[in-house]
Write a structure and sequence with these properties.
The complex is a heterodimer of chains A (about 200) and B (about 140). Chain A is mainly α and about 200 residues long. Helix content of chain A is about 75%, strand content about 0%. Chain A is elongated. Residues about 45-50 of chain A have low confidence and may be disordered. Chain B is mainly alpha-helical and about 140 residues long. The chains are: A mainly alpha (about 200), B mainly alpha (about 140).
Chain lengths: ~200, ~140
């Protein structure tokens, strides 16, 4: 039974363990597109601001106030701040995931895949996605063209939707989040429609 | 190298292994799922969602988990991604898992997907008003 693909009653619980354990350990929602975003779009605007320490920002603000309004204003500001801090402790700032950690996550996915394929004896260099893909979608050089175009759809689509099968599908749906339920319904729905179209178009 | 790096490397390793063993990286299996020829992957996914729901309900307070607002991109992006998934058998993690298994044709998918992800934010800023968020970022 475990020599081939895992049965659903084993794979499903494993998925759930990953999603819930990731939240419990990291206090973040598990999602793969987020890791790509961390790697591909570092240090833009808000991220830059995140890198500056809160103390440095506060100091800069203090200096600017001093220059603009004089020492009295600074003293006033400090008093107001002190009383505010007493009343409400600041919520803990969330450090962004280090870019290198996201990169390591992505870099280890193929290693995990290689081990998985090794276990089942499927590990082999192949130039196609297999007989079904060649028959149903395209074969020869056209297969690569279709894959590249399909890849652009995957890249643009997941970025536009703000998540993919893991972030919206697993993490979002399991919390009954409306945006994730809608996104998941639309990518599964479209996947079904396109697959049936491909199936219907195959030459007998 | 801090603890967070080690943890994320392990998540990647484990998740890649799981996806490969479940068969999400096998185009034939994904196509069988989408054409209802074999419901195994659907059942795996739905069981995963159902048990995650139970896990979140029992182990966490739902209110402490951040929520994200709906925007039209959830539908439009979902449609584009669904079409790409049906054509390539790949979602963003599968792109890389396929390569690890030796399915080198996946390099074409990966190139397309990276190009799409890099180019999209500027397209987004030009045409759309809603914030461009992403899970876990």
């Amino acid at each position: 039974m475990f020599s081939g693909h895992w049965p659903w009653w084993f794979g499903g619980p494993v998925f759930a363990i990953v999603v819930v354990a990731f939240w419990l350990i990291e206090r973040r929602l598990f999602g793969v597109v987020g890791q790509y975003v961390q790697v591909l779009e570092p240090a833009q605007g808000a991220a830059e601001l995140d890198k500056a320490s809160p103390q440095a920002l506060e100091e800069a603000l203090r200096r600017a106030t001093l220059a603009e309004f004089g020492a009295e204003a600074v003293a006033e500001m400090e008093a107001a701040e002190a009383s505010e801090k007493e009343r409400a402790p600041e919520p803990r700032r969330r450090e962004p995931v280090p870019r290198a950690a996201s990169l390591l996550f992505l870099a280890m996915l193929p290693v995990g895949g290689a081990i998985g394929a090794l276990v089942t004896g499927q590990l082999a260099l192949r130039g196609t996605l297999g007989a079904v893909h060649e028959r149903v979608v395209a074969s020869g050089p056209m297969e690569l063209v279709v894959l590249a175009v399909g890849g652009v759809l995957v890249g643009v689509g997941t970025r536009m939707a703000g998540g993919c099968t893991s972030g919206h599908g697993l993490s979002g749906c399991s919390r009954l989040q409306p945006s994730s339920l809608i996104a998941t319904a639309s990518f599964f729905g479209t996947g079904i429609v396109v697959s049936f179209l491909l199936h219907a178009l195959v030459k007998p | 190298m801090k603890a967070v790096h080690v943890r994320y490397a392990l998540y990647g390793l484990v998740f890649g292994f799981i996806l490969s063993r479940i068969g999400f990286s096998d185009f034939g299996e994904v196509h069988k799922m989408f054409t209802f020829a074999d419901l195994r992957l659907f059942l795996t996914f739905c069981t995963g969602v159902g048990l995650s729901f139970v896990g979140f309900m029992t182990l966490t307070r739902m209110s402490e988990i951040p929520r994200r607002a709906f925007n039209p991109g959830n539908i439009m992006g979902g449609v584009l991604f669904g079409a790409g998934w049906a054509l390539t058998g790949a979602c963003p993690s599968i792109l890389l898992v396929q390569l690890g298994e030796g399915q080198l044709a996946g390099l074409a998918t990966l190139a397309g997907a990276l190009a799409g992800m890099v180019v999209y934010p500027s397209i987004h800023r030009r045409f759309f008003r809603w914030p461009l968020g992403s899970c876990a970022a």
